[in-house]
Amino acid sequence: MTDRTLVVLREALARQLLSDTLSSAPEFHRRLDRAGIRCHGADHLFYFPEAELKNIAEMDVSPDIRLLTEEDAALFNAFCDKATEADLDAASVELDHWLVAGAFENGELVSAASMYPWDDTTLADTGVLTLPHARGKGYASRLFRGISHFAIKRGFEPQYRCQLDNLPSVALAKTCGLVEFGKWDVILSR
């Protein structure tokens, strides 16, 4: 991939920040700082390569994974009660999202993933959360690939984002066969 930066701004903000030629991404960030504009913090943005999308569409989903519905509310709430607030916030997994799936260990929901369509596109943004006692057992990767299978069958392409310093999530992306498209950041509301 070419090392380049693409910036999309509203016209008024572009005029404020780009009165002259911009030579680098660090210079752009310095201008944001000088203008008192803060960003959310960059995320890695991951997608499956085309060949891997085909493999996932054709795979059999692991038997310990199934879709979740509103009928699973008690099960999902019990799962959330076992997770930390920080983990719940970082994963952004919600039972009322467009597509939700879970991985089970001896009948217990130990990993949950949810997707929602990204800005009226066929991209499906994905969050995954695994309870601490079930980490390192492959649940998250099987679940991510499983929910991706369900999304692809519905005509959507999985997308995965995580903070740059979230090393377990970066490792999950690589284990699942995702590749980084780039890094993405947004300006916080002014």
TrEMBL record:
Transmembrane domains' residue ranges: none
Domain N-acetyltransferase, chain residue ranges per copy: 63-190
Gene Ontology terms, MF aspect: acyltransferase activity, transferring groups other than amino-acyl groups
KW Transferase (keyword) present: yes
Stored InterPro entries: Acyl_CoA_acyltransferase, GNAT_dom
Coiled-coil zones: none
Stored CDD domains: NAT_SF
UniProt signal peptide: none
Record's keyword terms, sorted: Transferase
Name of the protein: GNAT family N-acetyltransferase
Native source organism of the sequence: Brucella intermedia
